[in-house]
Amino acid sequence: GIMSVVSQSAPINNHVVPPGHILMSKCWRGTQLAGHLSKLIPIHYSDGLGIVDFCPSQDAALIFISEADIISGSSYKERVIKFRKVNGFLRGIVMAQNTLTSDEFYKLQRFVCVEIGLAILPVQTIEEAAQLLANLVMCEAKFNSNPFRMKPKTASSPDADLLKTTAMIPGLGDKRVRKILQHFGSLKELANATQETLEEVVGAATASSVYNFFHQSFLL
């Protein structure tokens, strides 16, 4: 059943997130997701996160879009746009529940990645969402090994968006991320690349992962 979560310490003031911990909006207290996550990492709650649902580190933020949000149509777009605007210095990530057989998730994916320029993480179950959040927290805690931290010396906004998204594609290590950044000039160019073009840059196996990321190939 749904577990109630007791934070391992008091809510953090001024949104300070210790390495290895996660900051969650108070609206998630007592939910099934919080219950699963509490078994993996320490949770802190705040009622001052606004539109943000989770902060896996001091400078990263996530919002969660549920299956119901996706089914409802374009209502999630306003939330994503607002999240982008209020994000400020935070690196924004959208976590979305992908349990649909229609093209609704594909529309969401294209909107978030290509039009808005944020990274998107698809999850199917609450358990998977909790594990992914825990992995993000651990990744953020390892400063030097975190691909989010790789910032080109002359990083324009499109470069930063391209970096954020490629860092979240399954199967991409730092070396392949750098190859993609060197070859593709924008997130839109990467999203529209053919699988053959991708294979020339990162090899067949990784090319499939990248291509599927942008073309609704998450098999249920």
UniProtKB/TrEMBL annotation:
<dbReference type="InterPro" id="IPR026985">
    <property type="entry name" value="FAAP24"/>
</dbReference>
<dbReference type="InterPro" id="IPR040646">
    <property type="entry name" value="PND"/>
</dbReference>
<dbReference type="Pfam" id="PF14520">
    <property type="entry name" value="HHH_5"/>
</dbReference>
<dbReference type="InterPro" id="IPR010994">
    <property type="entry name" value="RuvA_2-like"/>
</dbReference>
<dbReference type="Pfam" id="PF17949">
    <property type="entry name" value="PND"/>
</dbReference>
<dbReference type="GO" id="GO:0036297">
    <property type="term" value="P:interstrand cross-link repair"/>
</dbReference>
<dbReference type="GO" id="GO:0043240">
    <property type="term" value="C:Fanconi anaemia nuclear complex"/>
</dbReference>
<dbReference type="GO" id="GO:0003682">
    <property type="term" value="F:chromatin binding"/>
</dbReference>
<protein>
    <recommendedName>
        <fullName>Fanconi anemia core complex-associated protein 24 pseudonuclease domain-containing protein</fullName>
    </recommendedName>
</protein>
<feature type="domain" description="Fanconi anemia core complex-associated protein 24 pseudonuclease">
    <location>
        <begin position="16"/>
        <end position="137"/>
    </location>
</feature>
